[in-house]
Design goal:
Elements (H helix, E strand, L loop, with lengths): L3 H4 L10 H6 L5 E7 L5 H15 L4 E7 L9 E7 L5 H10 L6 H11 L3 H11 L7
Antiparallel strand pairs: 1-3, 2-3
Length: 135
């Protein structure tokens, strides 16, 4: 079921559709994150689908662990998948996620890296930051 925020978007989120969108060349990067050792079984099963394509050389996978810090008492495990020509997006996403500040520009960059089109990012940002110009 879509939450109220997602229902206000004039497009469908990539969530749970990442792999198909990647092979349709509509998405170049998929990003999953949870506390280290805490990914739910349903997500682990989904990740195994991606891993098959990693074994076949169709995708690259990178795991990145952020240690606990003062704001987060647990290690954060990020798993990123990219189409081989877009491997650069993995490093860009890790760098972005490690940013000490987060705001409209970081949200826009995240959307770009994940493969959302500019008009989608603009609409998302208008909803996410209603008192700012997201264009």
């Amino acid at each position: 079921m879509r939450n109220s925020f997602a229902s206000q978007l004039p497009y469908t989120l990539h969530t749970n559709r990442e792999l198909g969108l990647m092979f349709a060349n509509k998405k170049s990067l998929a990003h999953f994150a949870d506390a280290e050792g805490r990914f739910p079984d349903v997500v682990l099963r989904y990740l195994r689908l991606f891993d098959r394509h990693v074994q076949w050389g169709r995708l690259i996978r990178r795991d990145h662990i952020n240690p606990p810090n003062q704001d987060r008492p647990f290690a954060l495990h990020r798993i990123l998948f990219a189409l081989p020509p877009h491997e650069w997006r993995v490093d860009a996403m890790i760098e972005l996620m490690d940013s000490p500040v987060w705001g409209i520009e970081q949200e826009r960059r995240e959307g770009e890296l994940l493969g959302y089109e500019d008009w989608m990012n603009a609409h998302f940002l208008k909803l996410r930051f209603p008192n700012r110009n997201g264009d």
